Amino acid sequence: MLEIKNLHASINQIKILNGLNLVVKSGEIHAIMGTNGSGKSTFSKILTGHPAYTLNKGEILFEGKKLNKLSPEERSQLGIFLAFQYPVEIPGVSNEEFLRIAYNLKRKSKNLPDLNPIEFLEILKDKLDASNLTIDFLNRNVNEGFSGGEKKRNEILQMTVLDPKLAILDETDSGLDIDALRNLSIGINNFMNKEKSLIIITHYQRLLDYIVPDFIHIMHNGKIIKTGDASLALTLETKGYEWLIN
After folding, report:
1. N or C: which end of the chain has fewer CB within 10 A?
2. pLDDT tens across 234-245, in order?
3. What is the CATH superfamily name and number for domain 2-245?
């Protein structure tokens, strides 16, 4: 599904990624871990086409299609989704309205007609259940007055509604207590199936207790320096990163 070849990237002429390679197949869950400044979040921004970041060298292939010069909107329409580390508030726009507009834009890219509010609400009911959320979320403005846990769960609702092929979760677990983390994980696990792929960027093992990855990759200085199975996160818990870096 996704193939990253020798990726080099920078922001404000500061090199961040230095030859990153990665292959993600359908149905796989990949976790990316590493110290602060290792390039994890930059990788997610480059993958989704953030305009502040420059792709200097390498290729991003998604289902065989080269993404290097595609806009964030075009990548989204192909089926790529990014859950932000710090979701933004949108005062005056309800969740229902925001989701319906985004959903209809996706339908438009496939030459399908818009759904009216009543038609869309029928779709939303199942998505709310899958995301472990209640219907009162729909009437609230996007992330306005939300707790940290509610913002992250709202991101997962957006992911579930838009139904991407590849989802990237950038430190979705940061700042969450154990109950919020458990609820968030339910929505993520309900989203996954053999046709989808997931990249989880995280610092902590605790999220991986609920969402078990097929592969864990350790980043350092802008590239992957070690890959292993789920047990690699447990090793990091006891040894830290120094045994890999030094």
Report:
1. C
2. 888 888 777 777
3. P-loop containing nucleotide triphosphate hydrolases (3.40.50.300)
